[in-house]
Amino acid sequence: MILFFIFYGVAGAMALFAAAYLLLRRGNAFAPEVTPPLRLRRWAASFFAVSALGHVWWLLLYIFSDDSHSGVVFSHSVGYVVVVVLDCVTLLTTMVGTLLAMLQDRRRPVWPVFVAMIPFVVLGGMLMVSPSERLLQIAVAYVVLLYVLFTVYVAFAVRQYGRWLRDNYADLERKEVWITHVVSLVFMLLFIFYAIVDTNIILIFLLHVVQLVFFGLLLWRVETLPQLDSISAEEALGSAASLCEEPDVLTQAQQAPATSANINLDQVEQLLAEYCVKTQLYLQHDLTLQQLAQAVGLNRYYISQYFSTQGLNYNTYINGLRITHFVSLYREAVDTHQSITAQQLAHQSGFHSYRTFSEAFRRVMNQSVSTWMKD
């Protein structure tokens, strides 16, 4: 029992610390170079805050519902229902807000979850007036079903988000949110555990051990997911110019033709060849479709349409150019007997990390980097 209360207190303190950290600390202790979305930080902080509060009101219920105490504040049934309703409504809505904030392809509303929780709150009110085991089972089944449906929605939303990433970003390092599936499923399992453990001390102990792991995983994901807002046109052009050896590259980019409603796809191909391939714009780290469109001087719609006709997406196009550049650099290094690593050449070819390069290389060349280098 003492060990259980230690874990219980540590879980509550960790949740409180995480909420304070996300709300008050401006810097990023996990990944200093990453600026996570402010909306995500706030939703995660609210989830951690209500988790900490949950530990407080469950402790109060445990203390004041004990018949051996003379000052009873809650009756056992009413107090239990109040705490369960508070927990489910606050935890579920803040967790949903956190998971949706991870998906930055569009701003998904959270209000439908509040609406969906109304029947559960009504059931809770009915339980307080007339306690019934059957009503309690219906309420628990309803909230679990609600979260199962949301988990299914998250699965489809993450898939859609992945397509959006590949259509707009060349570098996917730390941007993908497959971990959202893990967070969503772990939280659902915690909810199911929460619904069935009742007073089983072993299951409650296990619940808090898993909860500690879950808190750490969620905090890490929040702080390592970068804000994906596009940078300004001036920043994009400036970054592109800094990567080019030719002194007139910036002038070329600034003189790119203006967007035209009558432009055809052949012209898009020519413009990409002139303002992306020739200037080696693809070597820019974290180059986005928006930045490419600004440098070329076209609406991103035309470029996306061109990629679609070629059976490509933006990520495949840019990384294909980078792989070609890597092959050229490697062959040049071999011919001149230079001592250089594949990691160095991958970075010079525009890849932010070697892992991303290795995965892209395998997709393009149908073999691993090491196998290709030996051959």
Protein described:
The chain is mainly α and 375 residues long. The chain has two domains: 223 residues, Rhopdopsin 7-helix transmembrane proteins, CATH 1.20.1070; 142 residues, Homeodomain-like (Arc Repressor Mutant, subunit A), CATH 1.10.10. Helix content is 72%, strand content 0%. Helix 3 packs parallel to helix 6 and helix 14 crosses helix 15. The longest helix has 36 residues. It is elongated, with a radius of gyration of 27 Å.
What labels would you give this structure?
375 residues, mainly alpha, Rhopdopsin 7-helix transmembrane proteins, Arc Repressor Mutant, subunit A, 2 domains
Judged by helices, strands and strand pairing, the structural class is mainly alpha
Number of strands: 0
Helix share, percent: over 70%
Q: Low-confidence stretches at least 5 residues in length (pLDDT < 50)?
A: 67-76, 230-261
H/E element sequence:
HHHHHHHHHHHHHHHHH
Determine and state the CATH class of the largest domain. Mainly Alpha
Shape: elongated
Query: Architecture of the largest domain, according to CATH?
Result: Up-down Bundle
Whole-number count of domains: 2
User: In what range is the share of β-strand residues?
Assistant: under 5%
